[in-house]
Design brief:
The complex is a heterodimer of chains A (274) and B (178).
Chain A: H1 2-15, H2 22-102, E1 106-115, E2 124-126, E3 139-141, E4 146-153, E5 158-162, E6 176-180, E7 189-194, E8 199-206, E9 216-219, E10 231-240, E11 246-253, E12 262-267
Antiparallel strand pairs in A: 1-2, 1-12, 2-5, 3-4, 3-12, 4-5, 6-7, 6-9, 7-8, 8-11, 9-10, 10-11
Chain B: E1 2-4, H1 6-22, H2 24-27, H3 40-52, H4 54-71, H5 79-97, H6 102-126, H7 134-164, E2 165-167, H8 169-177
Antiparallel strand pairs in B: 1-2
Helix pairs in contact in B: 1-3, 3-4, 3-5, 3-6, 3-7, 4-5, 5-6, 6-7
Classes of the chains: A alpha+beta (274), B mainly alpha (178).
Chain lengths: 274, 178
């Protein structure tokens, strides 16, 4: 009975108290140290066993992550390819639209499929043929400038002769008449290619014509073979030609002639059609 | 006694021709694209001359030269058909007389490559389709291509032997026994 009263008294006494008396603190701290000394290692050991149990899960997870990373890398590569393709197509489209607006020509996109290894007939093949409306002597350009002329056409492919094969003295040559962009009325010349120096030449320029370094040479459309306004290259030098009466300019070609991806065939409106 | 599997040689050369025209242009750097002009059909003609004799090499060179000329027909058809047939025959003739060591094969491939390219040059010069000087052509295109052809022959020598040769020694031995 006395004990009961004593306990109730202790309970009542400790009910609302915030501080601790020193025996309580001592007991708490002593036990706390021992508990701490035990709790952590046991926790670690228990954790170790639990980790062992979960190791296979981790393996699986790791596998999955690795697969995801591989997938991601693949997607990244694919994305990069698509992005660069997209960039290229955008540029092509922009160029095509601009050109079509400027001159009423039709630019048809075509892929290069092969290039020959005959040093005197360095032709490339494209994947458009007579079925697509390609005809001999149509101009072939890239975004940069004039690449060549369609020389032979078969049903589904055609052969393109680059302008680096133009030789004024050969028996089956085609002469490209050219002019300078912005000075179309006063400058006129004929373009061919110097294989040994790797530059183009524009000859038979009038000596009074004003051709300066850096001018853009374009086709003039006078010859009737090529439409006008296709970029050929930039003028490097201009000096007196072989006979002293006319000037000859050297031209850095605008287009490059190897490692070609996509080219455009310039289709002129057919005069025979209504 | 060995015999060449000519059907296999033709199929392999067709595949090599495709590779040469559509893959190799991408592998040659821009600065060298006019100088390193590998003719894999020519390399195969050398092997056919080595393993199959001069008549086969003549027809083989004629056929594939003609095919190449037709595929990339710019000015005219024929220079490479003529050149490869002639060089194939001459190389076959040389193999008939001498020991067929690898060094000799390499030497003939080099000389043949040089002759073929110079022959093509002189044909184009004859019809005034080119106005380059012979020394420039030799230094600019023929010499690098010649070295490349020798490398290609060296690289393809063992695979070609394994792939193209049919051993018929055992059959003839059996025939002897019977």
């Amino acid at each position: 009975m006395i004990g009961l009263i004593l306990f109730i008294a202790v309970m009542g006494f400790t009910l609302r108290r915030t501080g601790l008396t020193w025996p309580e603190r001592f007991v708490n701290d002593a036990f706390g140290t021992a508990q701490g000394a035990l709790y952590r290692p046991v926790g670690a050991v228990a954790g170790f066993f639990r980790d062992l149990g979960r190791l296979s899960d981790v393996y699986k997870e790791n596998e999955e992550l690795r697969r995801t990373v591989a997938q991601y890398t693949q997607d990244q590569i694919r994305y990069n390819a698509i992005a660069s393709d997209n960039e290229r197509y955008k540029k092509d489209l922009e160029f095509k639209l601009r050109q079509e607006q400027l001159f009423s020509l039709k630019y048809v996109t075509s892929q290069v499929i092969a290039s020959g290894s005959n040093p005197y007939d360095k032709n490339i093949k494209i994947d458009l043929g007579a079925q697509d409306g390609v005809k001999p002597n149509m101009a072939v350009v890239t975004v940069d400038g004039l690449v060549g002329l369609v020389s032979k056409v078969s049903e589904f492919t055609s052969t393109v002769m680059p302008i680096t094969e133009l030789d004024p003295a050969s028996p089956d040559t085609i002469q490209i008449s050219a002019t300078v962009s912005g000075k179309e009325q006063q400058v006129f010349g004929i373009v061919d290619y110097d294989k040994e120096k790797g530059v183009m030449r524009m000859s038979k320029i009038d000596e009074n014509a004003d051709v300066a370094e850096g001018d853009t040479v374009v086709t003039s459309g006078n010859g009737g073979v090529l439409p006008k306004g296709l970029v050929i290259g930039k003028v490097l030098t201009n000096q007196v030609g072989d006979f002293g009466l006319t000037h000859t300019a050297t031209i850095q070609p605008a287009a490059k002639f190897d490692h070609l991806y996509e080219v455009f065939v310039v289709m002129t409106p057919d005069p025979d059609k209504p | 006694m060995t015999r060449i599997r000519i059907n296999r040689a033709i199929v392999a050369t067709l595949i090599l021709l495709l590779i040469q025209t559509s893959v190799l242009p991408w592998l040659v750097p821009s600065a060298w694209s006019g100088r390193l002009l590998l003719h894999l059909p020519f390399v195969m003609t050398v092997f056919v001359a080595l393993l199959g004799g001069r008549h086969r090499a003549f027809l083989f060179g004629l056929g594939f030269g003609w095919l190449e000329d037709t595929l990339f027909y710019g000015h005219m058809i024929g220079p490479y058909a003529f050149g490869m047939a002639l060089i194939g025959y001459l190389i076959g003739l040389a193999f008939d007389r001498r020991l067929n060591t690898l060094a000799f094969v390499l030497l003939l491939a080099g000389v043949g490559s040089g002759l073929l390219d110079m022959l093509a040059y002189f044909i184009y010069k004859l019809f005034s389709l080119t106005h380059l000087s012979a020394s420039f052509v030799f230094y600019w295109q023929v010499l690098p291509t010649l070295l490349l052809h020798m490398l290609a022959v060296l690289a393809l020598y063992l695979p070609a032997r394994r792939f193209l040769v049919r051993q018929i020694a055992s059959q003839s031995e059996e025939a002897d026994v019977v």
